[in-house]
Amino acid sequence: MKRLQFFLTFVAVGLLSSSSAFAAKYNQPSKGRDLISLSLEESGLEFQKLRKTKGHFSGGKWSDSVDKWMGRKHQVMLHLQQKLTSKRADKHTIISIMGNPDIMLNYNDPQAPEFYLNTLSREVKQAGDEILIYKWRGSHDFLYFVIRKKKQLKSDWWMALE
Question: Most buried in the list 12, 29, 63, 96, measured by CB within 10 Å?
Fold first, then answer.
């Protein structure tokens, strides 16, 4: 997990420092404006548009922009994670920028989907803890924010790593 966190941090820093050069180097066309030139709100709006696109992992056909490693949706999510985490954005801010989470887990929630609860059980440690889950490629790969008393404790990724 530490290697994955390091890699994702490395990728996010690369996106922020030179998203055009990074995209060109890895043959990932940058659609629209470079992420670094977008405001947090503009990035959030782009994410909300992209999340409505059905790709391979959400019952549609493969779409490079939403399914591909370092496709636009992945890039935008990494950018948002970096910005929201560096600001220590609270729950309200995260939701106002990214929209409602695909899944929200609460501590000891008997209605929580078993997969997510088992996968992220170590993250919820006390009553009131919540996890906001934003899917990148369905339940296959997703970004999550751990919230305690409406404040962000951390953000991270869960990936299938097949």
Answer: 12
CB 156 within 8 A of CB 144: yes
Q: pTM of the entire structure?
A: 0.76
Q: What is the DSSP letter of 19?
A: H
Render pLDDT for 37-67 as a digit per residue (tens, 0 to 9). Answer: 889 999 999 999 999 999 998 889 999 999 9
* Side chain identity, residue 53: T
Q: Classify each residue of 132-159 as buried b or exposed e, where b means 16 or more C-beta atoms within 10 Å of its C-beta.
A: bbbbbbebebbbbbbbbeeebeebbbbb
Mean pLDDT of the chain: 80
91 contacts: CB under 8 Å, gap ≥ 6: 130, 132, 145, 147, 150, 151, 152
